[in-house]
Amino acid sequence: MIEKNELILAIETSCDETAAAVVQDGTKLLSNVVATQMDIHQKFGGVVPEVASRHHIEQMTVVLEQAVTEANVTMEDIDAVAVTEGPGLVGALLVGVNAAKALAYAHGKPVIGVHHIAGHIYANRLEKEFEFPLLSLVVSGGHTELIYMEEHGEYEIIGETRDDAAGEAYDKVAKALSLPYPGGPQIDRLAQEGKDTYNFPRSYLEEGSYDFSFSGLKTAVINKLHHLRQKGEEIDVENVATSFQESVIDVLVDKTYDAAKDYGVKQLIVAGGVSANKTLRARMEQRFAETDVELAIPPLYLCTDNAAMIGAAASVEYHKQNYASLNLNANPGLMM
Amino acid sequence: MYKFTTINENETQRLAKQIGEKLMPNDVLTLDGDLGAGKTTFTKGLAEGLAVKRTVNSPTYTIVKEYKGRIPLYHMDVYRLEDSEEDIGFDDYFNGEGVTVIEWSQYILEFLPEERLQINIEKIDEERREIKVTPHSDHLNELCKELKL
């Protein structure tokens, strides 16, 4: 029998945040500790895998101890240890997976492997209960996916990017504009000041498809910058940022709206790092205001990578007793 | 070296598919070309030839993505390993059961096996591409001989 009020200690190390959290019943956050490495990777203009792994190792035990202390619990009170098993950088994932297995083994607790994207979706459950059927738009540096859910723990990918993720396009365009990493917040900030003057393409793909494509847009922006520089013309950085962002957001909002309507969902969850984007949030709110679909976007601290979301997603698996063995391994290309 | 000029994206993908159909476990391919040259398009063709069902998209964020097919496909973008000595377990992929495709391979030259298929895509204009295929083993040379547009 699974008792109520279960406590899950969760770990997330898939990219450049070392995170641990204690979550009660998948809905209540008792602690949420995140040690970011962003300032370190900023110097390199992107995440450097081996640097990330080294920092995870340095931070892991500190973050874990802090998560348990802040939650005011002991390891005895914990019912299961959850960890992101993928997708992500293999060296980074391994730090979390091994920490989780060591803890679980030492304290005789079950270990639960969680898909990073399931975590992003479940970040919302710490704020608002799910209403099924629901649709989730997951947008981040590595993902752009529309995921349909009829019940807890069941994920159907109904659309995904055919080339680059939205966040990847942001980072590459930011780099072409010589903006610091990470590019998303920089472009969003500049876009508030500019106008959509460059008319970059919007890729809707074939009629009825919920897939995305951002590679053509990225190439169009970079080619445009190249041409302007060659002709010695001035580049209006704000207008480039606005024009690029408008193209991305138009497609994201339109496709999500169509999918939500076609699937008759009750709730729409926007998740992943790019859901921190102010313009995307505002436009989603605008578009869904007149519908019956409830829009849920997590607060900023739950949009970026964190372990609380992993604990929330793990709760569902805990109730199914869907435990991993101590053979659990990092899986950089884990499919949903 | 074998040279092909493809007239559009479809033809590029068809050429890649032919290669994909003939690949064997442990084959390693390097795939280089400028932004917008069609590396992703080419990899989609390869994946089709390997009977991969899923959408093949950018591996940039996680560096490597794995796909199930007739044999597994490991798709790598090692751009972020520039100036790095990191070995992300390359041998496990190269000697694994599948085919490895590597974009930006110049950053991991020291890890590449000698026997590999080198592919360079160059943009001629918006639609047309020149594709150079250089085999570095007998088996890969045999494979190249059978390719036709």
TrEMBL record, chain A:
Cofactor binding: number and manner: Binds 1 Fe(2+) ion per subunit.
Lineage of the organism: Bacteria, Bacillati, Bacillota, Bacilli, Bacillales
Annotated ranges, domain Gcp-like: 28-311
Annotated binding of Fe cation, by residue: H116, H120, D305
PROSITE patterns assigned: GLYCOPROTEASE (PS01016)
Annotated compartments: Cytoplasm
Functional summary from the UniProt entry: Required for the formation of a threonylcarbamoyl group on adenosine at position 37 (t(6)A37) in tRNAs that read codons beginning with adenine. Is involved in the transfer of the threonylcarbamoyl moiety of threonylcarbamoyl-AMP (TC-AMP) to the N6 group of A37, together with TsaE and TsaB. TsaD likely plays a direct catalytic role in this reaction.
Family of the protein in this entry: Belongs to the KAE1 / TsaD family.
GO-annotated biological processes: tRNA threonylcarbamoyladenosine modification
EC number: 2.3.1.234
Cofactor(s) it depends on: Fe(2+)
Binding-site positions, substrate: V138, V139, S140, G141, G142, D171, G184, D188, N277
Keyword Thylakoid among UniProt keywords: no
Name of the protein: tRNA N6-adenosine threonylcarbamoyltransferase
Species of provenance: Alkalibacillus haloalkaliphilus
Gene Ontology CC terms: cytoplasm
Keywords: Acyltransferase, Cytoplasm, DNA-binding, Endonuclease, Hydrolase, Iron, Metal-binding, Nuclease, Transferase, tRNA processing
Molecular-function GO terms, alphabetical: DNA binding; endonuclease activity; iron ion binding; tRNA N(6)-L-threonylcarbamoyladenine synthase activity
Gene symbol of the encoding locus: tsaD
HAMAP family: TsaD
Catalytic activity: L-threonylcarbamoyladenylate + adenosine(37) in tRNA = N(6)-L-threonylcarbamoyladenosine(37) in tRNA + AMP + H(+)
From TrEMBL, chain B:
Source domain of life: Bacteria
Keywords assigned: ATP-binding, Cytoplasm, Magnesium, Metal-binding, Nucleotide-binding, Transferase, tRNA processing
UniProt GO molecular function: ATP binding; metal ion binding; transferase activity
GO BP terms: tRNA threonylcarbamoyladenosine modification
Cited InterPro entries: P-loop_NTPase, T6A_TsaE
Compartment(s) where it occurs, according to its Swiss-Prot or TrEMBL record: Cytoplasm
GO cellular component: cytoplasm
Annotated family: Belongs to the TsaE family.
Protein name listed in UniProt: tRNA threonylcarbamoyladenosine biosynthesis protein TsaE
